[in-house]
Amino acid sequence: MNLNDLKDFDILSPQDKAEALTLLQKYDELGKQDSCQKDFMSFVKHMWGETFIEGRHHKIIADKFNRIAQGKLKRLIVCLPPRHSKSEFASTFFPAWMMGLNGALKIIQCTHTSELAVRFGRKVRNLIDSEDFQTVFPNVSLQSDNKSAGRWTSNMEGEFFAAGVGGAITGRGADLLIIDDPHSEQDALSPKSMDSAYEWYTSGPRQRLQPGGTIVIVMTRWSTKDLVGRVLKKQGDDNADQWEIVEFPAIMPKTDKPLWGEFWKKEELLGVKASLPIAKWNAQWMQNPTAEEGSIVKREWWKKWHGEQVPAYDYVIQSYDTAFSKKETADYSAITTWAVFEHETNETPCIILLDAKRMRVDFPELKRLAWDEYKYWEPDCVLIEAKASGTPLTQELRRMGIPVTAYTPSRGQDKVARMNSVAPIFESGMVWSPDETFADEVIEEMASFPYGDNDDYCDSATMALMRFRQGGFLSLHEDYQDEVKLLRKDRTVYY
Fold first, then answer.
1. pLDDT, tens digit, for every residue of 419-448?
2. Each residue of 359-401: pLDDT tens digit?
3. In sequence order, what are the residues at sequence separation of 6 or more whose Cβ sits closer than 8 angstroms to the Cβ of residue 338?
4. pTM of the predicted structure, to 2 decimals
5. Highest-confidence range of 5-9, 337-341, 404-408, 471-475, by mean pLDDT?
6. Count of Cβ atoms closer than 10 Å to residue 369 Cβ
């Protein structure tokens, strides 16, 4: 409300106008105070100011924090990519807001080092000590004689205690336990460090939780064996903590758009992706660490070809997993191209990945792309699965003179069965990949199968490798209903 909303305001005397203005200002302050106390996002905007750039993930996280404040949510996991305001929300504004709502609250805040934990404690302390905070929560303040950055109390006997992973917290109790990024990059390289973090969590912070207390874990994923991976695995046990999980990939799989497009442009994210190993990108930025222990095809089974020139090869197989639509929710189409070659270390032929492409396209675009790929690689065999989306492409390419083989899975040959059927080829060391980003993407997707978000490359690759088995290169059981005679060519191709 403002003065312009009041009818006949101009007829008031100067003294009455001043009194009305004071009342309106007080009304606005009370309205803002009420909004900030009831809604976490309103509090963040009030405290952060005009520089705050709101994203969709902020709204979702704020709603979860509101439910915690209302006592409706006790176990929350939030997984976010780096530089998406994770710590500002969870380790700065949230504990300050909760302390404002309940000045007697006991909070333990943990992160991977004690130094960083103390830094968070200082930020929360300074926030509570600020004028902006006092306008929202005028009854809560710091004890004047207890203002240590990592250990302080409120005027209502509330406590805040900051600790690093591995640090002692014996004797401390917590109504709210916040764990923010319990792993460092060095920890991620050490399975032992991952184990130690989980052991510390179960023997320390988890046991310090008061009856009815709340736990919030917010972090960037590193591995299936990180803290989130371990507590979720434990979740299957009877009477174990049951978590509400919110995961945010940097680029949304269904829309192919940035999670926080207001701050991160897609080109910038793709630049980050190009500079990282694909496994690190998938884990940290897409929150999709590869579940190596449960994978059918292990990452280490692939042989790496480090030469600038691919080996001279005899036969090329091109394989399509098709989907026609450019809708943001549509599946991807994937094309992988493989070459059969002789290697001095193997008695039997080997196969190397030459190229891999994945895209969302409509049918005319896919047809044009298929023609371009065929002309460039001159494959001896083009495979397209005989399914609803593949049949029209098969027919069109055959009209264009491309020798397409319609792949028809045998009975019982689901995706998992197909992957199991080609796994021995990998394990025997016959599958090679170049030192290229596209190859890393295929390797990681296959290593995460069947638990990964995508399987387009998996479907395309298994078709090609099953043809490799059935093409006279290996003497193994039959994988195809229809047989095609394979012809050889001699070529050398450069990247």
1. 988 999 999 899 999 999 899 999 988 988
2. 888 888 889 999 999 999 999 999 998 776 678 888 899 999 8
3. 316, 317, 318, 319, 351, 352, 353, 354, 464, 465, 468
4. 0.68
5. 337-341
6. 16
- In this structure, which amino acid lies at residue 218? V
How far apart, in whole angstroms, are the C-alpha atoms of residue 221 and residue 211? Answer: 29
For the CA atoms of the chain, what is the radius of gyration?
Answer: 29
Question: Which amino acid, one-letter code, is at 350?
Answer: C
Tokens of 86: 């994770």
Mind giving me the DSSP string for 137-177?
-TT--EEEEEEETTEEEETTS-EEEEEETT---TT--EEEE
Residue spans of beta strands (DSSP E) within 360-418: 381-385, 404-407
Closest C-alpha to 164, from 212, 210, 204, 129: 204
Q: Per-residue pLDDT tens for 281-321?
A: 888 999 988 765 567 898 889 999 988 888 999 899 999 99
Could you tell me what percent of the chain has a pLDDT over 70?
85
Residue 450 near residue 419 (C-beta atoms within 8 A):
yes
Q: Write the DSSP symbol of residue 253.
A: T
Question: 433 is written with which tokens?
Answer: 């990949």
Q: In this predicted model, which residue has the larger pLDDT, 72 or 332?
A: 72
| Alpha-carbon span 290 to 283, nearest angstrom | 7
Residue at token pair 């002309």: 375
What tokens does 211 get? 């009856």
Please state, in angstroms and rounded to a whole number, the distance separating the CA atoms of residues 313 and 351: 9
Of residues 8, 23, 180, the one with CA closest to residue 86? 180
CA distance 328 to 314: 39
438 φ, ψ (degrees, to nearest 5): -60, -35
Can you state the angle between helices 56-69 and 94-101, rounded to 10 degrees? 30
List the domains of the chain with CATH numbers: 54-270 (3.40.50.300), 292-473 (3.30.420.240)
